[in-house]
Design a protein that fits this description.
Elements lengths: L9 H4 L3 E2 L5 E2 L1 H10 L11 H13 L17 H13 L28 H14 L7 E5 L2 E2 L2 E2 L2 H12 L6 E6 L7 H10 L7 E5 L7 H7 L2 H8 L9 H21 L5 E8 L9 H13 L3 E8 L5 H6 L1 H12 L3 E4 L8 H13 L4 E4 L1 H13 L6 E3 L9 E6 L13 E9 L8 H5 L5 E8 L1 E3 L4 H6 L3 E5 L6 E5 L6 E4 L14 H11 L3 H12 L12 H16 L2 H10 L6 H15 L1
Parallel strand pairs: 3-6, 6-7, 8-9, 8-10, 10-11, 11-19, 12-13
Antiparallel strand pairs: 1-2, 4-5, 13-16, 14-15, 14-17, 17-18, 18-19
Helix pairs in contact: 3-4, 4-5, 11-18, 14-15, 18-19
């Protein structure tokens, strides 16, 4: 029933992936963007909450002419119709630089067959196949085929297909997921074909491979492309020669990428110091950005997962082994990465890791919270302000808030109200000669990355920070908001307020992560990659997406009004709250409660 993924705990649902338009979505959309090299929008993420909200709003406006609103009703199924209309509308939105409507739309229906949560969507798909016609609808059913002591069991697949057929959906392809290196046996394939009412060519096996980047080639080897081309009559779709050439080139580069992976011997080790390390999916895009960068520098990637609170003195007293193991992982790494997060828990450990990286000249990359904590750590230990902190960690205003709440952000609504989406960063004049991060972005004076934050560096302290050696090489268009920091006399010490991991691609890694991994490799690897980036860097965003902050803010404001229930409702809340508890303190208590819980 969530509207989006923005308010979900990362330890419960994995990372919240941010799109160009500020949509906070499930991490699956990140996988689609990376694999297909497309740019999606918030409307590409359909949730039950969005559908119900849309239907209820129409009912309130009287658009159903007094009829009883139904989930599934013969004369007018309101919910299922809304789902179909949404899919049809979004399927026509361009997703690449061509600006053309897509020829094929992939719809992922998550969950398990029979789940009550997915029932309206399953029914909508049953109806949708008749709306668009048989030649325009193909269903791929993914089913687990467990291996019991060497015998591949087909009964779970038979049962789910039987239930699915009872709901009015017949699979065109059955993708059999096998947990292990063994491929699908011919006998198993024939058995599934017989009892699931499909031909053998409609059953494909997806077993474990050495890398997820081998999966497209695994599916291609089983002629899935040829089957879908025939099934959906895609050979009748006109494809320009230029696009065919691009597709052929992509296929060639992808094969080179996967083949190169198997020949890697040297390893680069990164310590990821985070607060949600119990569920590694919380940092899905971060790990993918590290992988993509490692491919470019021809290294195997090893990540040391370090729970930040394990680095704190309290852990040394309560669990000395965890403490020493955590520090051994940090000290033994070629680079230290502190990613984003929320709340006070574990931040002291993060700052200890940042201090170690700064003083010992270990390559460091700070993302969002990591960037903010790098500023706080510098203020404490270089500017000698022991009480330097972030306003996020205190309900009352602290003595020295190096990080403050952004004035334009809502203090009473959490969902969809942060500074979200693709935002420009302008590099400072005079940095083109020495700034490593600027060179990694091709030496451009202006770049775009995706953001997700409520807090910013306090402008009151900026002058003191800069004079002491903390260089803010990148700012917003007005020059008021600090967005990139870099230490000049350090092998690689860079922090970004943005989340560059959201724009990484297997064949076009994030520049910030690429530089970080290259620096962690040692030797001349970083200088070689900087030279290459200066020649070949290409932004991963469509040209039309790289617009000014003012234009982006106008679109974002509309989304905020939608997420908070409208301007008038907000005014009513303000009036009702006069004399009541300060909304800011209420907001901070909610945020703190969530982070204490996780």
């Amino acid at each position: 029933m969530n509207i989006d993924a923005g308010t979900m705990r990362p330890t419960e649902h994995g990372e919240v992936y941010v799109l160009n338009d500020g949509g906070e979505v499930d991490l699956d959309l990140g996988n689609y963007e990376r694999y297909l090299n497309v740019t999606l929008s918030r409307d590409n993420n359909i949730t039950t909450g969005k559908i119900y909200r849309e239907v209820i709003e129409k009912e309130r406006k009287g658009e159903y002419l007094g009829k009883t609103v139904q989930v599934r009703f013969v004369s007018f199924p309101h919910i299922t119709n809304a789902i179909q209309d949404w899919i049809e509308r979004v399927s026509k939105i361009p997703v690449d630089e061509s600006g053309e409507e897509p020829d094929v739309c992939i719809v992922e229906l998550g969950g398990t067959v029979g789940d009550i949560e997915s029932a309206p969507f399953v029914e909508a798909m049953r109806q949708f196949q008749f709306r668009v016609g048989h030649d325009n609808f193909a269903l791929i059913h993914v089913s687990l085929v467990p291996d019991m002591h060497g015998e591949q069991k087909t009964k779970p697949t038979q049962t789910t297909v039987h239930v699915l057929r009872g709901l009015g959906l017949l699979p065109d392809l059955i993708a059999c997921r096998l947990l292990g290196p063994e491929s699908l046996n011919p006998a198993t394939k024939d058995k599934i074909s017989m009892f699931c009412h499909v031909s053998s060519e409609q059953v494909v096996g997806v077993h474990d491979v050495s890398s997820v980047y081998h999966v497209p080639l695994l599916l291609q080897s089983q002629r899935i492309v040829e089957y879908l081309t025939k099934r959906l009559k895609l050979d009748e779709v006109k494809v320009w020669e230029e696009r065919k050439a691009k597709g052929a080139e992509l296929g060639k580069r992808w094969k080179e990428l996967t083949a190169g992976q198997e020949r890697l011997f040297d390893t680069v080790t990164i310590a990821l110091v985070g607060k949600y390390t119990d569920l590694k999916d919380s940092y899905m895009s971060v790990t993918k950005a590290l992988e993509h960068s490692a491919f470019r520098v021809h290294r195997k990637m090893t990540v040391h997962w370090v729970e930040s609170s394990d680095l704190e003195p309290e852990t040394q007293e309560t669990n000395p082994k965890r403490y020493h193991d955590a520090w051994r992982a940090v000290v033994g790494a070629g680079g230290i990465l502190v990613p984003g997060g929320f709340g006070h828990r574990g931040t002291e450990g993060m700052m200890l890791a940042i201090k170690y990286a700064r003083e010992q000249k270990v390559p460091f990359l700070g993302i969002c919270l990591g960037f903010q904590l790098a500023v706080v750590e510098w203020a404490r230990n270089v500017l000698d302000i022991p009480s330097a902190t972030s306003a996020e960690f205190h309900t009352a205003t602290p003595e020295h808030p190096l990080i403050i709440f952004m004035p334009e952000i809502s203090r009473t609504h959490m969902g969809g109200t942060m500074r979200l989406g693709l935002r420009p960063t302008v590099f400072e004049q005079g940095t083109e000669g020495w700034s490593k991060v600027r060179k990694l972005y091709g030496g451009k004076g202006k770049i775009w990355e995706r953001h997700r934050h409520r807090y910013e560096v306090n402008p009151v302290y900026v002058e003191r920070l800069v004079k002491s050696g903390m260089n803010f090489v990148g700012k917003d268009e007005k020059g008021e908001r600090m967005q990139v920091c870099e230490l000049k006399n350090h092998p690689f010490f860079i922090g970004l307020q943005a989340h560059p991991e959201f724009c990484t691609r297997p064949l076009n890694p994030s520049p910030a992560f690429l530089g970080f991994v290259a620096a962690a490799c040692g030797g001349d690897v970083l200088s070689e990659q900087i030279e290459l980036q200066l020649k070949t860097f290409k932004p991963p965003h469509p040209e039309g997406a790289m617009i000014s902050e003012a234009q982006l803010r106008n679109a974002s404001d509309a989304n905020v009004r939608s997420a908070t229930g409208g301007v008038e409702e907000g005014k009513k809340d303000d009036e009702a709250g006069k004399g009541a508890k300060d909304p800011a303190s209420v907001h901070m208590e909610v945020v703190q409660a969530i982070n204490d819980d996780i």
